[in-house]
Amino acid sequence: MDTGTFAFMIHPLDAGYFARKFPITSRLPESVMEAISRRLPPIKVAPIRGVESVHNQADGWFVACPLTSRQMLGLPEDLVLRKIIQTGRMAEKLGARVLGLGAFTKVVGDAGVTVARHLSIPVTTGNSYTVATGLEETRRAATVMGHDLGRCEVAVVGATGSIGSVAAQILAREVRHLTLVGRDPAKLDRLARAITGHTGLVPRVSTSVSQSLSQADVILSSSSAVDAIIQPEDLKPGAVVCDLARPRDVARQVAEARDDVLVLDGGVVQVPGDHVDLGFNFGFPPGTVMACMAETMILALENRYESYTLGRDLTVAQVDEMERLAAKHGFRTTGFRSFERALSQSEVDQIRANAQRRLTTAPEPRRTAILPGRSEPQTEVRAGMAD
Prior knowledge:
Helix 8 (185-199) links the parallel strand 7 (177-181) and strand 8. The chain has 13 helices and 16 strands. It is of the alpha/beta class. It has two domains: 4-124 and 272-330, no CATH class; 133-267 and 336-361, Rossmann fold, CATH 3.40.50.720. The two termini are 40 Å apart. Helix content is 36%, strand content 17%.
């Protein structure tokens, strides 16, 4: 096969990125820095080299749209899309034959459809492989923490988004107790009915993060919130949370206040190749990337230049196929990571021991009734929760 070429689009999550990258800007107010970033051109960040499987190899580039997460969601949509499309055109000029969208570049507007229409190369959001890896890690973590996935309480936060929706459909084939958590009761009800029609399972639906998660043993979270929506007090001892959202759904305070819950950085994978050089340090161990980046690499290794995961209608078949292609080329999930830090087996064992001790001594929590297939009458929507 021909050597594949690709690009992956990133952006600063907040204005603090500029201060870390360019210390001279550290004293500028955030509003000033964001005003400057609106006027910055797309940025070629770094080349990506050494991606190699037994079947092919691929080279690529990181390109950056200079807008922050807050700007992505707060500025006029047409302005944001223009900036993303400009960045995509840079990827075209570099020679990329497929473009992956990262973080909020794949959330704005119609989830990449408009961007792809204005470019001469295909576009993917990477959400198919993100779901596959998130589910793999969730299953593994549930087992480690002593949960039987088929019997325990499982919740999906951001269930009406593209990631949450298909993850919920796949989980519904494996679990007995499933709660769908989101902002829009009508969308939740439609998803619940679809799941029932395909699997026979009748999920509960909820618009309250705190009430639904207080009963959950296993949680997969993938909202489009700008700010964290899962707080320390929301979780029961022994809970497993796989956080696929970027920015995170789980508040950092959870790591500080709760030593009895296992929070995972979902979707982190090892890239095949003995000399992988990503050219850019984004906080992961060498040779590892987010699953959405990996999907772009997989398409390049396959010389499959098509808009694979685009829009908000992600399918179970896409997730299953991308999981198979990832295995073919040697991509694999890493060990457990939590808040950018690898967890040792002894740390995981201690979390489980802490949870068992507190479950033994804690009084039985008061349960809130959530009717299957019906949104609860009392609605709680935390600021920024988008799906």
